[in-house]
Design a protein that fits this description.
This protein is mainly α. The protein has eleven helices and no strands.
């Protein structure tokens, strides 16, 4: 396949994979709903940092080594699944907002790098990522492919990720939409937290 044909194929595959509800979607949605646009985009930046690492090792063939090693894959699966369950349980324990205390809590939560860190760890420890990205790159790469083509593929994957989740953040942090969700925000936290726990359990039992 030439560059343009490969990009079109990659776009179709990766957009479907990105748009499908998964750990990043659950986490970014939860942060945007609970803490607003800045928190959502900060979390998104964290997932992109994690994604860049997946792209780098996949492009250099390290994902093939990980996916062919049962012990390495099991370690990633246990760490990733355990972290998802931890995030989910934390969200399940969310309490209804309590006026000033809740506002101050949200302000403190958004003042540091914890949103970025959550997004980064969530994406980096996604146990399905090593197999997925090595399969994706194997599909479009060829032995004599120029290095700048690999760079283009990696950058395009990042763009798809950014565009999709930016739309998610903008929608969920919109004042009109957010106002409707705010009154039941703790329930949304619990629902998304439950989904994260379910995904984590599914990962551990896979």
């Amino acid at each position: 396949m030439d560059l343009m044909e490969s990009l079109l194929t990659l776009t179709a595959i990766h957009f479907i994979a990105t748009a499908s509800p998964g750990p990043e979607f659950m986490l970014i949605s939860k942060e945007a709903l609970a803490h607003g646009r800045r928190a959502g985009f900060t979390c998104l930046a964290g997932t992109m940092a994690g994604l860049s690492i997946h792209i780098l090792y996949s492009a250099f063939g390290l994902a093939a080594v990980i996916s062919s090693s049962p012990k390495a894959l099991l370690a990633i699966q246990l760490i990733g699944g355990g972290y998802l369950i931890y995030l989910g349980i934390t969200a399940l324990m969310t309490k209804p907002p309590d006026t000033c205390a809740s506002i101050l809590s949200e302000h403190r939560a958004g003042s540091g790098g914890q949103f970025f860190r959550r997004g980064f760890i969530c994406d980096l420890l996604n146990p399905k990522a090593p197999v997925y990205y090595v399969a994706l790159f194997t599909f479009v790469l060829s032995p004599n492919m120029p290095a700048f083509h690999i760079f283009i593929y990696g950058a395009w994957i990042m763009i798809i990720h950014f565009v999709w989740f930016s739309a998610v953040v903008l929608l969920l942090s919109n004042p009109v939409v957010n106002k409707k969700f705010r009154s039941m925000g703790h329930w949304m936290d619990r629902i998304l937290g439950g989904a994260m726990v379910a995904i984590g359990v599914k990962v551990l039992s896979a």
